[in-house]
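Quick one: structure tokens for this chain, please?
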Amino acid sequence: QVQLVESGGGLVQSGGSLSVSCAASGSIPSFYAMGWARQAPGKQRELVAIITGGGRTIYADSVKGRFTVSRDNAKNTVALQMNSLKPEDTAVYYCNLQADISYWGQGTQVTVSS
């Protein structure tokens, strides 16, 4: 089993910045991708950003140029730096570790006020 614990998030005004972090523990696979998804009220969960073990990144079109995902392989952590935040970025942000099985964190709230 893998455990994912998120931290960060909170409330920020439109145009501001926030970061969220996630630490993985437990039986971590040798090869995996990590990333973030988000779910706004009444909407489906959507992928925000993924980073592979080799550092390749994939972003949702809605966050390209504003969000940056990074990881520390030695510490099994992944972070998401969010800049130029918009009210539509408001959601619960979930950490994800993707190997043969997909693992999810409990989520952390990000709220952007207009």
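DSSP finds no helices and eleven strands in the chain.
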